[in-house]
Design a protein that fits this description.
Oligomer: single chain
CATH topology: Ribosomal Protein S5, domain 2
Strand content: 15-25%
Number of helices: 3
Number of strands: 4
CATH architecture: 2-Layer Sandwich
Largest sheet: 4 strands, mixed
Distance between the termini: 44 Å
Radius of gyration: 15 Å
Number of domains: 1
CATH class: Alpha Beta
Order of helices and strands: HEEEHEH
Length: 136
């Protein structure tokens, strides 16, 4: 039998880390805290943590005006969510959980073509670092 690792990092992306509430989305856009990191526009908001099991939450949007086909919009959203899922724990959790804050993000894809995954992942990392600098 292999020994279990105690310092295992959970890279899952559960439902509680997704923003689907219309009210929360309107609050994010209403705050007007915006960061641009081409090909993304990101609205963000920090709130205090009420539940110790809460984590950072994200909403991803790809405009229908840019990508008419739902297949293309869904592919871009999958790429963004995957790169966020992989990089969220290394960048955001360390900085926000220490301050007992929950970060809510709404990421909007503004490029007119589907970029390769490696480039999207690099830009997501840069975007998350910019957000951390802004809230610090």
């Amino acid at each position: 039998m292999l020994p279990e690792k105690d310092n295992h990092i959970d890279l899952s992306f559960p439902k509680k880390n997704r923003i689907s509430s219309e009210k929360v989305i309107q609050e994010l856009i209403g705050n007007k805290k915006v960061i641009f990191e081409h090909p993304f526009k990101c609205f963000y908001h920090c709130t205090p943590i009420l539940d110790p099991h809460e984590g950072n939450a994200i909403c991803v949007s790809v405009p229908k005006k840019i990508f008419k086909r739902a297949v293309d919009r869904n592919r871009v959203k999958r790429l963004i969510r995957e790169s966020y899922r992989i990089n969220n724990h290394t960048i955001l959790d360390e900085n926000t959980l220490l301050k007992e804050q929950k970060l809510e993000l709404m990421i909007i894809y503004i490029e007119k073509t589907i970029l390769p995954y490696k480039l999207i992942e690099l830009k997501i990392k840069e975007l998350l670092n910019k957000v951390i600098l802004k809230i610090s």
